[in-house]
């Protein structure tokens, strides 16, 4: 006697379920190592034309470093060159203060008398730099020529600080890096103040 088609279908389904249930789980759902995307991919920062134009100036030097240094939330909101310069000088004052704090910590335990002399020299230089950068940020609006003069006189102070550190054989790469960073911002400040000075002269 032939088995009805419906009964055959039921038997096939039953046997299939029985066979699958008797297999190990990993035989049914094998584990696949799918690499996950990197969640720490930084978002691209779109810098304004003002910053790009500034960093493209030949005297600035390292364009890539310039773009990276100025890609801060405050700086990229600048709407004109005066505002850009003001924000950069304020940023530099904050950074110089960080380096000044390092000098203040190191002078508590100088390695030698010559090192003490060098650290004192650098503390004075950075105190002057911090106050100058803050002053320049306010001068840019009313008197860019004075701001240009003020930014240029910071350089020799930092250069003398670096010379004293080298002569005293103070081994501190962080301090030397801070000095180079200040010199770089002095170059940026010089370009900004010069540009604003020329713009003011053209208005008359």
UniProtKB/TrEMBL annotation:
UniProt keyword terms in alphabetical order: Signal
Signal peptide positions (record): 1-22
Entry keyword Signal: yes
PANTHER family the record matches: PLANT INVERTASE/PECTIN METHYLESTERASE INHIBITOR SUPERFAMILY PROTEIN, PLANT INVERTASE_PECTIN METHYLESTERASE INHIBITOR SUPERFAMILY PROTEIN
Name assigned to this protein: Pectinesterase inhibitor domain-containing protein
Gene3D superfamilies the record matches: Invertase/pectin methylesterase inhibitor family protein (1.20.140.40)
InterPro entries: Invertase/methylesterase_inhib
């Amino acid at each position: 006697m032939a088995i009805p088609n419906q009964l055959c279908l039921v038997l096939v389904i039953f046997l299939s379920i029985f066979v699958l249930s008797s297999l190990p789980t990993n035989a049914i759902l094998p584990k696949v190592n799918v690499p996950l995307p990197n969640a720490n991919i930084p978002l691209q920062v779109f810098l304004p034309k003002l910053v790009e134009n500034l960093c493209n100036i030949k005297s600035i030097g390292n364009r890539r470093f310039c773009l990276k240094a100025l890609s801060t939330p405050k700086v990229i909101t600048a709407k004109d060159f005066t505002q850009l310069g003001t924000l950069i000088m304020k940023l530099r004052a904050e950074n110089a203060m960080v380096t000044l704090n390092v000098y203040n910590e190191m002078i508590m335990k100088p390695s030698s008398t010559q090192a003490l002399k060098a650290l004192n020299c650098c503390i004075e230089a950075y105190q002057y730099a911090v106050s100058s950068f803050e002053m320049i940020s306010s001068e840019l609006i009313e008197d860019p020529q004075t701001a240009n003069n003020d930014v240029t006189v910071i350089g020799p102070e930092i250069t003398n600080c670096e010379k004293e550190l080298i002569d005293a054989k103070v081994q501190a790469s962080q301090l030397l890096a801070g000095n180079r960073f200040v010199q770089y911002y002095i170059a940026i400040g010089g370009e900004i103040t010069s540009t604003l000075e020329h713009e003011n002269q053209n208005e008359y």
